[in-house]
């Protein structure tokens, strides 16, 4: 008898029929003699609707109150899921994040899990209850409700699997697994049989919406294999684990992120410490910076460009504008009509021609590159947002990723 953690996303619990489908899957594991923990997200578009409600009242509400509001979406889901399992005739209990012992830091709307006190969970599992836990939320040291950021229910599921030393962690979603690109953009995208933690982490961070990047970090840290599969059919999913195939793929996937903005600090004095000054100001505000590009100094000045998420753009501009005299820059400009397109593959490290192939694909499609960022297993480019989907398709075709199906990886 083992412990199984199952997570169901918003589309998987969007209505009565889907809730019962998920409930039957949970019951099926329970019938095999396993202890079952079910983590659920808010139904369908509930979170977006709650954000709209907040805007009707206050365009700039405090992050604490946003957490108080957004956490209610999952509370509805856990109660309905528990009622469905109850209706099927099985013992069940629903728990909010704090009832399940999920303790986080105090970074409201994007909190990180610090520890999980499993005492209550173990007690309920020992009573042979199926335990339904609210994803995406926890509690800080001040007993305030916190949320873990968009996609945070994945992180809840993996963290619970780690804390309970679960035998498996299944992430049920509206797609069959992890694909070489978003099938809505690239209809002939291939489903991967397996993918390494590192590749999945890059894809998740770069805009692939299948898994929350922090959930992959946790899975890698505690070596918990994740199975990503559809809640609408019984197809085999994609296994995310430590090492994928011995023969590493040149490119495993193409990701696209439109939630991005480019900021340029113009005419910074070309002396040591200026980059530190700029980025330490942003770090103090918990603003994540991604691609950074610094021009070669000319006339004793240089320009520093970087990308942030669109949600952090206003705050970034406010902080930099307020400190313009400290930084000693002439101007700050920005563009929010950009997108980041990336390729990821563990096989890149030994193949020097990958970047050239990617750039050739973009050149052939008539797409201009604004910024470039590389690491051992990824290459990202910043382009005009209107070209994003065309770029993904061009790159996917160039690397013939649609043919991966033939060997299933």
Automatic annotation (TrEMBL):
<comment type="function">
    <text>Catalyzes the phosphorylation of the beta-carboxyl group of aspartic acid with ATP to yield 4-phospho-L-aspartate, which is involved in the branched biosynthetic pathway leading to the biosynthesis of amino acids threonine, isoleucine and methionine.</text>
</comment>
<keyword id="KW-0067">ATP-binding</keyword>
<dbReference type="GO" id="GO:0004072">
    <property type="term" value="F:aspartate kinase activity"/>
</dbReference>
<dbReference type="InterPro" id="IPR045865">
    <property type="entry name" value="ACT-like_dom_sf"/>
</dbReference>
<keyword id="KW-0418">Kinase</keyword>
<comment type="similarity">
    <text>Belongs to the aspartokinase family.</text>
</comment>
<dbReference type="InterPro" id="IPR054352">
    <property type="entry name" value="ACT_Aspartokinase"/>
</dbReference>
<protein>
    <recommendedName>
        <fullName>Aspartokinase</fullName>
        <ecNumber>2.7.2.4</ecNumber>
    </recommendedName>
</protein>
<keyword id="KW-0457">Lysine biosynthesis</keyword>
<dbReference type="InterPro" id="IPR041740">
    <property type="entry name" value="AKii-LysC-BS"/>
</dbReference>
<comment type="pathway">
    <text>Amino-acid biosynthesis; L-lysine biosynthesis via DAP pathway; (S)-tetrahydrodipicolinate from L-aspartate: step 1/4.</text>
</comment>
<feature type="domain" description="ACT">
    <location>
        <begin position="263"/>
        <end position="337"/>
    </location>
</feature>
<keyword id="KW-0028">Amino-acid biosynthesis</keyword>
<dbReference type="InterPro" id="IPR018042">
    <property type="entry name" value="Aspartate_kinase_CS"/>
</dbReference>
<dbReference type="InterPro" id="IPR005260">
    <property type="entry name" value="Asp_kin_monofn"/>
</dbReference>
<keyword id="KW-0808">Transferase</keyword>
<feature type="domain" description="ACT">
    <location>
        <begin position="343"/>
        <end position="409"/>
    </location>
</feature>
<keyword id="KW-0547">Nucleotide-binding</keyword>
<dbReference type="InterPro" id="IPR001341">
    <property type="entry name" value="Asp_kinase"/>
</dbReference>
<keyword id="KW-0220">Diaminopimelate biosynthesis</keyword>
<dbReference type="InterPro" id="IPR036393">
    <property type="entry name" value="AceGlu_kinase-like_sf"/>
</dbReference>
<comment type="pathway">
    <text>Amino-acid biosynthesis; L-methionine biosynthesis via de novo pathway; L-homoserine from L-aspartate: step 1/3.</text>
</comment>
<dbReference type="InterPro" id="IPR002912">
    <property type="entry name" value="ACT_dom"/>
</dbReference>
<dbReference type="Pfam" id="PF22468">
    <property type="entry name" value="ACT_9"/>
</dbReference>
<dbReference type="InterPro" id="IPR001048">
    <property type="entry name" value="Asp/Glu/Uridylate_kinase"/>
</dbReference>
<dbReference type="Pfam" id="PF00696">
    <property type="entry name" value="AA_kinase"/>
</dbReference>
């Amino acid at each position: 008898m083992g412990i199984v953690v199952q997570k169901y996303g918003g589309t998987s619990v969007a209505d009565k029929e889907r809730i019962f489908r998920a409930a039957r899957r949970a019951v099926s594991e329970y019938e095999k003699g396993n202890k079952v923990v079910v983590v659920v997200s808010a139904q369908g578009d509930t979170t977006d609707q709650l954000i709209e409600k907040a805007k009707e009242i206050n365009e700039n509400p405090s992050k604490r109150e946003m957490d108080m509001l957004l956490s209610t979406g999952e509370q509805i889901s856990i109660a309905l899921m528990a009622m469905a399992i109850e209706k099927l005739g099985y013992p069940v209990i629903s728990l909010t994040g704090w009832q399940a012992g999920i303790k986080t830091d105090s970074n409201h709307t994007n909190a990180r899990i610090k520890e999980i006190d499993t005492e209550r969970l173990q007690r309920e599992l020992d009573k042979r209850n199926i335990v339904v836990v609210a994803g995406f939320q926890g509690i800080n040291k001040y007993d305030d409700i916190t949320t873990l950021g968009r996609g945070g229910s994945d992180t809840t599921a993996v963290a619970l699997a780690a804390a309970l030393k679960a035998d498996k962690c299944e992430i049920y979603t509206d797609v069959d697994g992890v694909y070489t690109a978003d099938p809505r953009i690239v209809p002939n995208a291939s489903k991967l049989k397996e993918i390494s933690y590192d590749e999945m982490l890059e894809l998740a961070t770069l805009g692939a919406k299948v898994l929350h990047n922090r959930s992959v970090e946790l899975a890698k840290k505690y070596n918990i294999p994740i199975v990503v599969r559809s809640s609408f059919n019984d197809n085999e999913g994609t296994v995310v684990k430590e090492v994928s195939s011995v023969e590493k793929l040149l490119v495993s996937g193409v990701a696209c992120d439109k939630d991005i903005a480019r900021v340029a600090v113009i005419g910074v004095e070309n002396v040591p410490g200026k980059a530190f000054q700029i980025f330490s100001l942003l770090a103090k505000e918990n603003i994540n910076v991604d691609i950074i590009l610094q021009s070669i100094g000319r006339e004793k000045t240089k320009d520093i460009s970087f990308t942030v998420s669109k949600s952090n753009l206003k705050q970034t501009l406010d902080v930099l504008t307020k400190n313009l005299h400290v930084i000693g820059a002439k101007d700050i400009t920005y563009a929010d009509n950009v997108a980041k397109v990336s390729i990821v593959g563990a096989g890149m490290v030994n193949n020097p021609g990958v970047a050239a192939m990617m750039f050739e694909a973009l050149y052939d499609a008539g797409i201009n590159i604004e910024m470039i960022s590389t690491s051992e297993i990824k290459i990202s480019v910043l382009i005009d947002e209107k070209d994003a989907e065309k770029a993904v398709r061009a790159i996917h075709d160039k690397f013939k990723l649609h043919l991966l199906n033939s060997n299933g990886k």
